[in-house]
Amino acid sequence: MSRRRPVTLSHRLAGSPLARLAALPVRLRTVLRHDARVLAASGRWLVRSREHTNYTFELTPLNRVHLAWWVANAVGAPVERIRGYMDEADADAALKAHVREATARSDRRRLADPDVHLHRRLGWYALVRELQPEWVVETGTDKGLGSVVLAAALLRNGHGRLITMDINPTAGYLIGGPYAEVTELRVGDSLASLGAMEEPVDFFLHDSWHSRDHELAEYQAVAPRLADGAVVLSDNSHVMDALPAWAELTGRRFHYFAEEPQDHWYPGAGIGLAR
Fold first, then answer.
1. Would you say residue 130 lies in a domain?
2. Are both 17 and 78 inside the same structural domain?
3. Sorting pLDDT into bands at 50, 70 and 90, what band is 3?
4. Is residue 167 within 8 Å of residue 190, measured between CB atoms?
5. Separation of alpha carbons 150 and 126, rounded Å
6. Looking at the whole model, is its pTM more than 0.90?
7. Could you tell me if 249 and 211 lie in one domain?
8. Is 22 in the same domain as 147?
9. What is the pLDDT of residues 15-34, one digit of tens each?
């Protein structure tokens, strides 16, 4: 004969109109634990970091695993090879030394951290290493960290060139040394620069003005120059639907990766990919 379990007070409360009120202390404790971690990370960042935009950080170990698989699945490559490319970039002492030294020489050094973190740009690097493009185009150069990461991948490939575009004539202070040998910085409006291009584009990265209309206009401007099998990336897909909308309109497949920063208050950005 089975025995019925006694009905506890917590069971009674869970089924009563008071359930939400009774659960409030547990819910509040969970929220406070989360907020305390964010506040602690925010405090450390305010004291230790100089960055005011385009934050850099390490990915969590698990998120790094996810990034390798995301790239592998997006382009149909073995994950161990993609992981090797990411490790290669992370271990590139010459690249990191160049970024540190160029930052130290720059008049923007007081707004940049001396430590070099590549985070989601490891995915950019791995894609260029795997796809072996001849022409890479980036809009939105800023200081040029993404540019030198892309250029480093091209140098490892032994072929290919990067065209990076920015409306700011002072952009790209990190582009120098061997990375400048495979990089051309074109200053001006990205839509005008894309419209004037003659080179075929194998790999396109939108990272300029983040409005839906402008992002879509960039895709429309570069579309006639995209080579067969070209890859199109957006560094803004965590807040904008422009790339998935354009991918659907043009019969491409869309993939998305969300980064998770390690010990940082910023929740992370994302990479959209259309192919």
1. yes
2. no
3. low
4. yes
5. 9
6. yes
7. yes
8. no
9. 777 778 877 888 889 999 98
